[in-house]
Design a protein that fits this description.
The structure is a homotetramer of 377-residue chains.
Chain A: H1 11-31, H2 38-65, H3 70-75, H4 77-86, H5 88-94, H6 99-102, H7 112-116, H8 120-129, H9 131-156, H10 161-164, H11 167-178, H12 191-235, H13 239-242, H14 246-255, E1 257-261, E2 266-268, E3 276-282, E4 284-287, E5 294-297, E6 301-302, H15 305-308, E7 317-319, E8 323-329, H16 330-339, H17 341-355, H18 362-367, H19 372-376
Antiparallel strand pairs in A: 1-8, 2-7, 3-6, 3-8, 4-5, 4-7
Helix pairs in contact in A: 1-2, 2-4, 8-12, 9-11, 9-12, 12-14, 16-17
Chain lengths: 377, 377, 377, 377
């Protein structure tokens, strides 16, 4: 399915986006520094203006590109963030807000980071799934907060009216203490007050531990599900894997690890002990054998000799374009083949079949198992 | 089994309860603020009075409704909390406690939150189950606390009598430090004192880490058990699921996710890629197909085409009443069908059987698998 | 195998030990308070003396009881702790240490808590097993500590010699910051110093997160192993469980939960929905049926009707002595019987067989499945 | 495969390395202390010089040893760390940096710890694998940081220009608060400022919880994989294990625990209850039976009687050289034999076969199962 703004996700554009964002935020920070040379302040404003212009252009381009579904784009989370990056500052300036204050709205640009962070959606899902349990923790948190601040208001209020004289002041102390921040601007002085404060601190640890435990649990479950789905999509792109019998495919999908590599990355180094084999889900790698390097396309695999014979790697393998690999580690391979011996046979048969036409380089075939015949076809 | 106060749990009442609670606590907080206009203070007292009246009425209604088992209600946790919300304030006023102080007892109202938080019981169970391990952590905590405070009392006491001159003062420093709160009101100054303090801080991290680790472990186990039991009850309400062979049902129960939706929530959006199918445990949804939307009752399923063919969703699906769905994700579906191929066949057969009478709209039947025949029956 | 001091572990003695410990420590704390009435101070000293006398007697009794293996007892961890509770104070007094200081050694009594905490050994094992990973975290911790304190000594030293003028001072700041305690007695003032401090704080979170993550992982694994071994010992005491076929026993052992109950505890309440069944590993329970309560001895089970028919509990069940139960929850029961249908049949058969001779009370037999015939034998 | 610097990893050398490092860092710390006797300062400088000389020698030896692959060593992480330990100080002194400052570069020596910590690579891998999720947490962290510091700059700036007068100052407050360090040097005073600060503190807990949860999850997965691979290598060195049927080997590999012991360590104590058996992967142990102690070489096992009969250990077992054992616990043994009964038979048969020639000491054969015949061969 075509993604209209998919090109924004490419590596170079992401880097440019981050650069513009960093410059913009830096300019905003510089702008607020008091004893600044006027020229520097001017430069900061120019920078801020440039960034705003860039974001405005980006917004306009996106809106134009989204003809037919304009409305949808502006109503999407990304659209709203893009809009919030552009509109508030001119509006504030129009309404007569001083420039110094208006440009602080550039801090909203940081929200653009959210559109660049791929894992944020998962975090959101974990929090949504664990909402009940997290809600209970918040209830505990609030209960301790209110009860302890009332107690300390009663106990410490008369002696320290500046620190505990009203409930808002007491609540400020309680939240500072319960979150273990501990500014030290309000410290109980009475014996009973300190006893309660001690319980609040220890409760803070407990509440925090519960919170962390819940998130860790939820995150682990979500992670497992997501990895499976992502791997599943990739496995279907490797004919060899897809054609195994279903239970083996499922188990394999669980065990594979996705590896996204940039162009010209060394995957395997000659002479290193091999502890995994690789399936190419997309992209291409080059096996650096003398005299003719061999290219392996998507759908093939390499490095299986490390698992079958335990031999060291016999050649460097380098990506020639952005490549996605699926990694099967030696431990997982043994686990799988113990229950599904046909897998080891299939890998060995495939490796043997392929190595035949290249008998002139047997050492290579045995050690890295290049798939020359397949890739040259 | 009928629950006499089950109606209290409904959505609207919960919202009202929270509103009353928020107003009451806010009024209590406002009441304590020193430089307050007399009119505002009066308003706060009126609010507090109203809340107390509401809680008193609630208590009386509940007691009257519980005829026959009155005693039980007042002895239950909920009953005690309701009682503690009503009685202490008038009693305090009767005994001549000044209004300012007596109304601080309104902070007990926060305990009502506990009756609204469904996950609290589970947290309690986790803590009970892990009591031994958590007890060990508390022993470590107390040991470090006592030994370090005695050490710092000896080392720093002579130089800083205000901070470390007695063991209670030293203990206050130790609990502040061990919980990593660090007010800074007592700071060791000698070399040895600081060395010990450093160990206390690092121990604090260790103790906290143990605590969190134990809770995380216990929570994960409890979570898994509870989800299974909750799902099991729902699975028995979907005839299709219930009639699968037992091991498949068990595995399915583990993998399903419960989804509680309010009325008029969009479950599935047209054109989106489908990554799960839905079983309706209770409630009803409407498939928005032209020209005649189709209603699906509890016990049916929809969205299975996304799993069988990978096609995008072909229609919006919206709930018509509060609905509980069981979600089966594509990854879990593949895992299940690999080991239990009969499940995929059953789903496909059911889908095919149902789509026959509606051959006039084949695109719909193939893409969202509406169950018109079943729902119209 | 007979434990010579096993009786010390009994409930009453544990409580007495805790009481003596609490009084001793409290007396020590009171002793150090500056503006104390002379009579109170005297009372504290008397208390301290009594506790010391009690601990001395305990030590002597234990040594006498351990004839033949005396040396072993004194060399064991418990023996050393007992020795450290008794010897240091008189020795200090003999060497002329002032009483005020010498009695601070009573803080060593807190170590006795360690002998009362059953989970401490497990925590020690987790730490030992994860020693490598935890060691790595400590290496990271030390590296950040040293590098950041050198950096801040260089940057802040000239301006704040009292806070950062030497490396020990800088290290004090670093450990305070890295552990997120943050006393605020030393705060960097330069831009670069604050930038580095920011990194130190964030690293602190990271280090702490790693530490917690490692402990959580190790604890989960250890917990699973330990529970299995403990349950295994108990399962062998229930003939019904022991005679199931081996894979079922193993799975069952994993799923059971141990429940240690005091005398006269209510296990099951009449009218409550039943969500588990109970096997009696040791002890005895009484089923409160009219007119003749029934006693169930170790090796029997009860509450299985809740799992077989889903009916509510039909009678209270109370322990008559300290009892250890093994709990099988409804969800786990369904999981097990799906894969091992013979278990459900065995439970049902056993329940039916037993209920026959007591047909005069069929409502009881059907709802709580008492094992009258077996227990009366 | 031969490791050229493998000898560096041996126990004695590691201890020496740590000693030199500790002395060097201590000397550096002492050097910076202000009121120091001139003689002590001189001693510190001498120590620092010695350490530098040692590290220089080490570097030269390593470079000489690495002839042929010199370049590789210097480009490896270890090589770079060794280089950074030696070069910067003389260079700084050459460029006229005062000795006091130049010698602070000795803090780089702490990086040598990284080469001694074996678990560091795993931590790095976990962080790399969870990079996406951790990146999302950092995005959340930065977003809260920027937005809250802009808000507090606006709210508190006018009243507290020294604390919130510019964005860098505000950011300093935000990072201090969000990491729950809480120095207390900047504390919001307005109501709204404190409200936002409260949210920042609670968010700090949430962010930290997410971070910890992600690391815990990733660490658990990595740990499991790594243990399997390490155990797998060891299992292949024990013929008895290697010859079991593949699924049993795989399950066994998962359950075994590696135990690295120094020379003369007591593995098993006479009279203790046995809860595990041991396979010797490398090294040698001596069974202390009278009159002739028996030595067991790598590839044999001992202690199996504890698992087969539940008897107590009948003799001490001590290592005679650095030894690696694989431990199988009683719970895991039962689990395994339930599904793979041939394992128990194989262990019992092997034990019986071996004990025959030593029928003169049957008590020994029955209780610790020494492998005299095998080891004497």
């Amino acid at each position: 399915m075509p993604r209209p703004f998919g090109f924004i996700k490419t590596r170079t554009l992401t880097f440019l986006e981050l650069l513009v964002l960093a410059i913009g935020l830096l300019a905003m920070i510089v702008m607020t520094m008091p004893g600044l040379a006027e020229s520097l302040r001017l430069a900061a404003f120019v920078m801020l203006g440039c960034c705003l212009a860039i974001y405005t252009c980006e917004l306009l381009v996106k809106i134009r590109q989204a003809t037919g579904s304009e409305k949808k784009y502006l109503l999407s989370a990304t659209g709203l963030i893009d809009l919030m990056a552009v509109l508030p500052i001119p509006i504030a300036l129009l309404f007569g807000v001083p420039a110094n204050v208006a440009w602080l709205l550039a801090s909203l640009w940081i929200l653009k980071l959210a559109t660049l962070a791929p894992g944020l959606a998962m975090l959101g899902r974990v929090i949504a799934l664990e909402a009940r349990a997290l809600g209970s923790v918040i209830v505990i948190f609030l209960t301790i907060l209110v009860l302890s601040s009332v107690a300390l208001h009663s106990l410490e209020g008369p002696a320290q009216p500046q620190q505990f004289g009203s409930l808002p002041l007491s609540l400020w102390w309680a939240v500072t203490t319960l979150s273990s921040t501990g500014y030290g601007d309000a410290v109980p002085a009475t014996f009973l007050g300190r006893l309660i404060a001690g319980f609040v601190m220890i409760s803070g640890l407990g509440v925090f531990g519960l919170w962390t435990g819940i998130l860790a649990t939820g995150f682990a479950a979500e992670h497992r599900r997501r990895d499976f789905i992502r791997n599943w999509d990739l496995v279907t792109q490797v004919p060899f894997l897809k054609n195994l019998d279903p239970p083996t495919v499922i188990e394999l999908t669980r065990l594979l690890r996705r590896l996204d590599l940039a162009e010209k990355t060394i995957v395997v180094r000659r002479g290193r002990p091999g502890d995994c084999m690789y399936f190419i889900a997309s992209g291409e790698v080059e096996v650096k054998v003398e005299p003719h390097p061999v290219r392996l396309a998507a759908g093939t695999f390499f490095g299986e000799m490390a698992l079958l014979t335990g031999a060291a790697r016999s050649a460097n393998v380098v990506t020639t374009q952005p490549t996605t690999l699926l990694v099967l580690e030696v431990g997982d391979f043994h686990t799988l083949t113990a229950h599904h011996p046909e897998l080891a046979q299939a890998v060995a048969a495939e490796a043997a079949r392929r190595s035949k036409p290249t008998e002139s380089k047997p050492h290579m075939a045995h050690a890295t198992g290049e798939k020359r015949d397949r890739t040259l076809r």
